[in-house]
Design goal:
This protein has one domain (2-205). It contains 8 helices and no strands. The protein has helices at residues 9-27, 34-45, 50-79, 85-101, 109-133, 142-163, 169-173, 186-205.
Length: 206
């Protein structure tokens, strides 16, 4: 079951490729470029300047770097047969923030494809983990905490995919997600995951 949670490399590669393209656009803005034109139009509608947009892009980069580092740590632990719940939860919530706060950086064709890949990847992880565990469990179970955090992430990815037209309403309906309404808040899940981490530390110190 542990190995079913390895983050797909394709997901990271897709985001990084999109980031590189956007960086080129923002460093040398060309209103004739389709994606840049869309981003500038959005910036104008939000009444923010190009310099503010660049700052938001830096925040996006920062969050992606945080995610990449945590993902590397998580995948290493998973390879060793460990399931670091807090790392899982942190990774999921950083990606949730990227999808929810920086979706407008994915308006071009490649960006839309990135969201589609991400949504399907994490839906697959969610469904695989749920099947492997046999049930969602209660709040004291590792699987419960991870699945609940995945629900938060998947909701954000689906909403972002709809916003950039990466997925249609019909395609989302066809994903057969079932009920992905989280039963716990982000704060509560982080707290539960932190407790799990310290339980593990104390157990190994005993």
């Amino acid at each position: 079951m542990v190995h079913s949670f390895v983050f797909p490399q394709e997901t990271i590669a897709s985001i990084q490729q999109q980031l590189e393209k956007l960086q080129g656009c923002l460093n040398n803005p060309n209103p004739q470029d389709e994606v840049m034109a869309e981003i500038l139009e959005l910036a104008n509608s939000r009444k923010i300047s190009l310099s503010q947009l660049r700052e938001e892009f830096k925040e996006f980069q920062h969050n992606l770097n945080r995610f990449t580092k945590l993902r590397e740590q998580l995948n290493e632990k998973i390879k060793q047969g460990e399931l670091a719940v807090l790392l899982c939860v942190k990774c999921n919530f950083i990606l949730k923030e990227i999808a929810g706060e920086y979706w407008y950086f994915f308006l071009n064709k490649d960006g839309k494809e990135t969201f589609k890949i991400m949504a399907k990847d994490f839906i697959n992880i969610y469904q695989t983990l749920k099947i492997a565990s046999g049930y969602e469990g209660d709040e004291n179970e590792d699987t419960y905490i991870i699945l609940q955090s995945l629900k938060h992430l998947i909701q954000s990815l689906v909403q972002a995919s709809l916003r950039v037209n990466a997925l249609s309403e019909e395609e989302v309906s066809g994903l057969d997600l079932g009920d992905i309404t989280p039963q716990e808040s982000e704060t509560m899940l982080t707290s539960l995951a932190s407790t799990k981490k310290w339980d593990w530390v104390y157990k190994n110190l005993a």
